[in-house]
Amino acid sequence: RSALVSVLIWIAAGIAIAWVAGHVPYEGVNLIASLSGASEANHPFYLFAVGLTGISMVIGLLIGLFVGLLQLILVERAWEASTRSHRAGWRSALALCWCLPLAGVFAFAADTVINAPIRNPVVDVAWTIDRARQPVIDLQAEGVSFLYPYRNQLTSSYTLYWNGAQSDPASTELTDIVEAVFDSGLRLRCQYGGVGGHGMVLGCSAVKTAP
Prior knowledge:
The protein has five helices and four strands, in the order αααααββββ. By secondary structure, the chain is α+β, with helices and mostly antiparallel strands. Helix 1 (2-36) packs across helix 2. The longest helix has 35 residues, at 2-36. The termini are far apart.
């Protein structure tokens, strides 16, 4: 009975960790922004995020089940490796550490499913801006001629914000919105979407800020 309870606890922990990880980029960021007085983050829990979090929760359930069953074996091995005075030694700790690789697998899976869809647009917009800042780059040839009017205002110091996603009524694709704020005062709003299965920066335009 205690073994069953232990396995169920591991399963519940895997599901709970995935649920929290799925909500952190949205409600979690909103909470931090409200506590710090920032106004850059106001992200609802998007429908696509619900699906991604659900996938992560299933992964968490499976890993929790596997770890729960594995730890029954590992605890037994740890007792067998205990000292003569029945204390946990380095061999006992080593036996229990066999669960750690699974934690790494879970973290990698959660990052790939939950964080990568948000991180990739920001990283690609930053790469596009940095390319556009180089005078030797032909913006037309690079396919980023939309940055030409702002080229002289693209300073080396800027801050990027993932500002949510919007759906295209004509397709099932989502367009991510990434805003870039430069030291020059320029504020760009860039659209990032999938084209042929690959994400790319679709365009950027200046955002007028209140005086």
